[in-house]
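Q: I'm a student working through a structural biology exercise. My instructor gave each of us a protein and asked us to get a predicted structure, then write a short paragraph describing it. Mine is Transcriptional regulator, AraC family. I'm not confident about reading structure output yet, so if you can add a plain explanation after the tokens, that would really help. Here is the sequence I was given:
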Amino acid sequence: MQSSQNQHPLSAPRLIQNEYYGKNVEGEAMVADHIFSYIISGSHEVWIGEKKYLFKAGDYRFFKRNQLTKFVKLTESEGFRSIAIHIDQATLKEISAGYELKPRGHYRAEGVKLINSNGFLESFVATLKPYLGSANLDNGLLRLKTKELILILAESDPDIKHMLFEFSDPGKLDLEAFMNGHYRYNVPLERFAFLTGRSLSGFKRDFAKLFQVTPGRWLLQKRLAEARYLIEQQFQRPTKVYLELGFVNMSHFSYAYKKAFGKAPSNK
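A: Happy to help. First, here is the predicted structure for Transcriptional regulator, AraC family. I'll explain a few features afterward.
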């Protein structure tokens, strides 16, 4: 497995190349910045909330910022290879001011969007390839390339144009719907609070009113109930289930499962 990226401050755009060979790669991530990504080889399964997306080689994608994702990078015969640019807010605000590009108010959109291929995107990706695997692309040039990408995306898709120039933090969301769609993610309560448009104290207060239990207790109960269903009814392996449901490791999962149900997790 290889993964390389140009090193830049988090406030700057980043160019990242992913290369994985052999076993498929699974994980979860907090998407903090908007991301433009192109798949060179392999395929990519992505879950946002409870919705699954499948992308293949040759696809251009746009991931909007401030969301949780789970993923499987499928290496297949040629390995998984992709190019991604993380688009920072400072560059977007500079473009917004310089070109008077504004959003149309708060916009709820799909968390990831397939972008129709066009000559501008194809040419743009081609210009990135000479820099991959090296440190030759300095901050100034990368910022210029990112500005070029932003203008191409804004011109290519009105929905993406809006998402790019919407600078507010997440608005206050339906807490019950969000948690039922995201309880599988192993993230701190502070992250759940931010993504639902609340302070940590406000999140805990609203959660207690809604569920009559603490967030930590509710998450554990929800994950264990789902684990029992997957193991006993869907005959899935415990070693696969614990990862999907946000447990830190198999030992922690087995201990919690046995304490809740009086027996160790087993699909036999």
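A: Here are two points you could use in your paragraph. Confidence is low (pLDDT under 50) at residues 1-10. Residues 155 and 161 are 7 Å apart (CA to CA). It's a good idea to check both against the output above yourself.
Q: Great, thank you!
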